[in-house]
Amino acid sequence: MLSLLGVGILLAGLVARRNPLLVVTAAALVAGLAGGIAPLRLLAAFGKAFNDARYISIAFLILPVIGLLERSGLQVEARAAVARLRALTVGRLLLAYFALRQLTSALGLLSLGGQATMVRPLIAPMAEGVAESRLGPGDPARAALIRAHAAAVDNIGAFFGEDIFVALGSVLLIQAVLQQNHIAAAPLRIAFWAVPTALVAFAVHALRLMWLDRILEGEARGR
Amino acid sequence: MIGVGVAYAVAGALFAAVAVFTAADSAHPRRWRNAGFWGLLAVSFLFGDRLGDLGNGVLVLGLVLIGGIGGLGLSRPPTTSGPEREALAARFGARLFLPVLLVPLTTLAGSFAFKAIKVGGQPLVDPAQATVISLALGVVLALIAAMAMLRPPPAAPIHEARRLLDSVGWAAILPQLLAALGAVFALAGVGRAVGALMGPWLPLEVRFAVVAAYGIGMMLFTLVMGNAFAALPVMVAALGAPLLIGRFGGDAAAIGALGMLCGYCGTLMTPMAAHNIVPAALLNLSPGAVIRVQAPTAVIVLLANLALMEALAFRRVPF
């Protein structure tokens, strides 16, 4: 029961807006100590779990390539390329990337997209470029809304696509957690159960992107 | 057999180079702090498997203290100006996209091809890690292609990497740290404690009440913990395994998968998640701006998940 103190620390840290690194570490150490794990064994378990999770951070490898292309005008070129496409709207561009992101994630190709690999260098500047060429110059608030939507399609597409792929972390983690509770479940069946939610998420967010176009057009006319 | 260690070594070399360049940058506002942070991360990627568990634990504490107290600073490494970028873009045009596309193409090709390549009956590349290794290979190829095409100063990739890494800052290690938190919570028995705590408040004989408590609990725990991976062990041990699967006979695969997907709805709405912090930093937004856009979809999908679980997870599925 005392190990719940760890959850309390997370909650308090969230409310007090302390640095998440400190909050997460404090929560892990308090939960472990309160749960009766000896201090040195606890620190070792924490270190091992961090080391085992390094695959999560491998995505940062792409940054030198992105930076190198940015210093050579990648974002300038992306905006210009999109500005030439007249039929495209912000919503349709984001929908195209959203569909691609969800499909490739479902195939296990999570690293094809990503905030650092695709959104910052390509999708966000492209979406801003479309808005400028179709709707005329906008204020910083419009640009921020469009960039936030670009970040959102990447997250939503990845989250509700990845669980369909049998060999990715999430499905394997679900299997491992059920196993800890002495319940057997095949990865293929876990992946199957992610399909209905994936379809719902796609339909809901696609409608919202079409709606975003109407909002942006309404704003542009109202000015 | 080539293992994932190769990819970690490449990443470690990158972080090490960033640390050295930062230490040499006397104009950096937080020179030693940033150099120490990226240097420790380099040690983790280069030597993590040789440090021992306790050594890794001490290393994590070091990263957390440097990154968590006072935070990191932003470097201003040499880069090109706006007009220079316009000129370079005009010169290279659409060819600038080629190196970016090389990374996913190599990842895709390698993920499938490496599984087929065998040397002396043994796979050349660890099949379980083929995607991560292919990604590292793709980045190296893209870097070589970009250097050959653009001919920038030789140090430019490192300077650009540190410009971008500094803009992500301490949030770079948050996802890894949250995965470690989930492991410690499982070890400490947090899940059983949550179940015991919720028991008296829930009408345990009403199936939909337990379904809703499990799904919404996943969402709330993920909101607090910043990661569904850390929340799932807690809620499965609390309600999923003993009640939904045990008492009501729910399909284990369905309960596990839909629980995780309820958690993802929480990830979309929490300022604790690196998924929201990193893009906000990269796109010069507040994390709240990304969350506000994601929240309506997240709430609707959560409700759909509860309905799907109630309607489908307790039937016999014909496969």
Could you walk me through the main structural features you see in this protein, from its secondary elements to its overall organization?
The complex is a heterodimer of chains A (223) and B (319). The longest helix of chain A is centred in the C-terminal third of the chain and has 28 residues, at 195-222. With 223 residues, chain A is mostly helical. The radius of gyration of chain A is 22 Å and the shape is elongated. Helices cover 75% and strands 0% of the residues of chain A. In chain A, helix 2 (20-34) crosses helix 3 (39-52). Chain A has 2 domains: 2-52, no CATH class; 58-222, no CATH class. Chain B is an all-alpha fold and 319 residues long. Chain B has 3 domains: 1-74 and 155-166, no CATH class; 79-152, no CATH class; 189-312. In chain B, 73% of the residues lie in helices and 1% in strands. Chain B contains 14 helices and 2 strands. Chain B has a two-stranded antiparallel ribbon. In chain B, helix 9 (190-198) crosses helix 11 (228-247), helix 10 packs antiparallel against helix 11 (228-247) and helix 13 packs antiparallel against helix 14 (287-312). The longest helix of chain B has 26 residues, at 287-312. Chain B is globular, with a radius of gyration of 23 Å. The mean pLDDT of chain B is 90. The chains are: A mainly alpha (223), B mainly alpha (319). Chains A and B meet through helix 1, helix 2, helix 3, helix 4 and helix 5 of A and helix 1, helix 2, helix 3, helix 4 and helix 5 of B.
Keywords:
heterodimer, A: 223 residues, mainly alpha, 2 domains, 75% helix, B: 319 residues, 3 domains, two-stranded antiparallel sheet, 73% helix, globular
Gist?
The complex is a heterodimer of chains A (223) and B (319). Chain A is mostly helical and 223 residues long.
Helical proportion of chain B, percent range = over 70%
Query: What's the rounded overall pLDDT mean of chain B?
Result: 90
State the helicity of chain A in percent bands: over 70%
Q: Could you say which overall geometry of chain B the principal axes of the C-alpha atoms support? A: globular
**Major sheet of chain B: size, sense and barrel closure?**
2 strands, antiparallel
Q: Compute the gyration radius of chain A: what is it?
A: 22 Å
Oligomer class? heterodimer
